[in-house]
Design goal:
- By secondary structure, the protein is mainly α.
- Helices cover about 65% and strands about 0% of the residues.
- The protein has helices spanning about 5-15, 25-40, 55-75, 80-95, 95-100.
- It is globular, with a radius of gyration of 17 Å.
- The mean pLDDT is about 95.
Length: about 110
């Protein structure tokens, strides 16, 4: 996500004076609710795991999740690039290519 996109998300919030409502608890709830709406796209789909015919709804719900994540990072004073890079480093250590390549098990089961 570019810095410009992040600025647009924050400007949208600020233009409406919504920052006052964006505390970490409520933003965490909003992220979870939007993630549930994303999951709902696949509800009752049985063995159909593709995104065919679902792309527009997926885009809409995924954008909502990402927008709330940006707002959460801002509310907590976190730099998105920094925290993602830190997590990639941690995951690289937990899931080394030599142990995890082609496997779905959790790191403590490899």
């Amino acid at each position: 996500m570019t810095g410009e996109t992040i600025k647009q998300i924050l400007k949208f919030r600020d233009d409406r004076d919504w920052k006052q409502f964006h505390n970490p608890k409520d933003l965490a709830i909003s992220i979870s609710l939007e993630a549930a709406e994303l999951l709902e796209v696949f509800q009752w789909s049985g063995t159909d795991v593709s995104n065919e015919g679902k792309q527009e709804k997926i885009k809409e719900e995924l954008a909502d999740v990402l927008n709330y994540c940006v707002l959460m990072a801002d509310a907590c004073g976190l730099d998105i690039d920094e925290i993602v890079q830190e997590k990639i480093k941690i995951n690289n250590e937990k899931y080394s290519v030599s142990k995890a390549k082609g496997k779905k098990e959790k790191y403590n089961k490899l």
